[in-house]
Amino acid sequence: LSLFALALRLLKCLPDGREANSFCSFYIRKITIDDFDIGRPLGKGKFGNVYLARVKKLEAIVALKVLFKSQMEKEGVEHQLRREIEIQAHLKHPNILRFYNYFHDRKRVFLVLEYAPNGELYKELQKVGRFDDQRTATFMEEISDALMYCHEKKVIHRDIKPENLLLGFRGELKIADFGWSVHAPSLRRRTMCGTLDYLPPEMIEGHTHSEKVDLWCIGVLCYECLVGNPPFETASHTETYKRIMKVCICLCLTFSRLIQYFCIETVKCLCQDHSSGQVAAHPRNYYVPCVIL
Questions:
Q1: Fewer CB within 10 A of the end CB, N or C, for the chain?
Q2: Looking at the annotation, which residues are catalytic?
């Protein structure tokens, strides 16, 4: 039986929560690479690779993220890894990729993660071009619920984008990368981070930011799911910055009438309702965009 076939069988037969309980009991003791059968590569990153793996004693399928210490030290991102581990280990939500454990040897750090068999949202979007209204709405509901949970825990993700979102066995969305996340009890930060196309205006200007940067990213993600590319994407960084600062959004002709109506009415409502707490409390009121039809 192949690792992939075994993964599907396990994911189908195990009820929710049972895998997690098994891992909890297993990972009380120290683990090493010898506890795993390593399968095919699932992805490649700047600091290492991700592999399909099986925990030998449990015959459970996981994703094993292998990071090289020398590369992380060279880029000075060891603190980001520590923070990622600390944050993700304490998050338990159906739309957040589970972090089970970690271990290391002289050269590498290993993260034991939940396996999401349907891969990256980014690759799925590239394959189909764009998603329909219903599928996009489902994704937005799932990521909104996950981020509400994070914000209740005083965690800001700060790098929501299709490349950092995975699809589970049933096609459900899972936030997978917490490398730029931060635990901020005051929910106020100043560090500029994330991906250019998804940066909010206050980050570009170097102002302090809050959990609302994640809400901005939800809006950008929603647009990209419906259209196939981010709303502020241009050929140059400078022009992209300008479009973000002006919040200049083009409502694509491929939008359904329902989506166009929703966007227009939402903008009209927000432009008129400056007294609402969600809009007025934001330092830039960037919810009042320039809309081009």
A1: N
A2: 159
Instruction: Give the predicted TM-score (pTM) of the model.
Output: 0.77
Task: Please check whether residues 127 and 41 belong to one and the same domain.
Answer: no
Which among 85, 114, 143 is the end of a domain?
114
Q: How many domains does the chain have?
A: 2
For 33, 98, 238, the CA distances from 244, given in Å and listed in that order, are 45, 33, 10
Q: Which residues are paired to 41 by β-bridges?
A: 51
Please give the residue range of the domain that contains residue 219: 119-290
Q: Are strands 290-292 and 248-250 parallel, antiparallel or unpaired?
A: parallel
Shared domain check, 123 and 39? no
| 116 annotated binding-site participant | yes
Residues 36 and 144 in one domain: no
| Per-residue pLDDT, 237 | 86
Residue 212 known to bind ligand? no
Does 5 fall in a domain? no
CA distance 14 to 266: 42
Angle at 100 between CA 167 and CA 214, to 5 degrees: 50
Q: Is 115 annotated as a binding residue?
A: yes
pLDDT digits (tens, 9 = 90+) for 105-115: 999 999 999 99
Known binder of ligand: residue 53?
Answer: no
pLDDT along the chain (293 residues), means of 10: 44 44 53 95 90 93 96 90 92 96 95 96 96 91 93 91 95 92 62 66 74 85 88 85 79 67 53 38 42 42
